[in-house]
Amino acid sequence: MVTSLVPLFNERALLVEAPSERVLVAGDLHLGLEKELRRKGVHGIEETPGLVAHLAGLVEQEGADRVLLLGDVKHTLGAWEPEKRAVAWLKDVSVPVHVVPGNHDGDLGEIAPFVVLEDARGVVVGDVGLLHGHAWPSEEVLRADRLVLCHNHPHVALRDGLGHVSKEPCWVRAPLVENEAVVERFGEGDLAREAVLVPAFNSLLGGVALNRAEGAPIGPLLANGVVRLDVGRVFTLDGVELGTIKALRERLVDA
């Protein structure tokens, strides 16, 4: 049985259907983001309980056997009391919660001993490699059939009929190429045939539109051109295919 990747309709999460389990995958929760917003003068937002409740609801809706969070579970880099209280909401999820750590997840094992910490270089579920994306993957993950990445909070810039440009969260599917950067690090060999970029689960987070000039991608796979973003296909949260990033960049300039 081939492992299936099923982006959930109008959600920022996907279901990995492997031969032996159903795994709900999400990334970039940034629990505790409210504290930074309050420092910037934005008050009255309490996102964390509702965000985790929504995640728990998706677990029940999809009959998932476990949750796999692809990094940046918490927002700040430390292990202060607000972060402990924010991450503690994950105890309400009814199935085991596994975490591939991201660049914001320092001390996560200390403040959340109830989660299962995986290798930051990623894990393989069925024939799919999954990682946050801030670090190079392991060779096993890179040579899986497909990759699932977070970290970039992918958005696309769209211009309406009045000339107004808005940014919308999106999914991206892009092929990989065996270039000099990857051969130097891993040697020659088959790579995953495509990467799926997952939108941030926390809707309060911004993101850089990948089809704008300032949309330089981050993380070694994207920054080194291993993931061919220019020919990557963009999809809205409700599954509408908008075209390639290159075509959307040209359309934005020409409009």
> What is the chain-wise order of helices and strands?
EEEHHEHEHEEEHEEEEHEHEEH
Question: How many DSSP E strands?
Answer: 15
**Radius of gyration over all CA atoms, rounded:** 18 Å
Largest sheet: 7 strands, mixed
Structural class: alpha/beta
The low-confidence runs, each spanning 5 or more residues with pLDDT under 50, are: none
Strand content: 15-25%
- End-to-end separation: 45 Å
Subunit arrangement of the protein = single chain
Task: Please list the strands of the largest sheet in the order they lie side by side.
Answer: 7-8-9-13-12-14-15
User: Quick check: average pLDDT?
Assistant: 91
Helix amount, in percent?
10-25%
Number of domains: 1
Query: What overall form do the CA principal axes indicate?
Result: globular
Task: Please give the count of helices.
Answer: 8
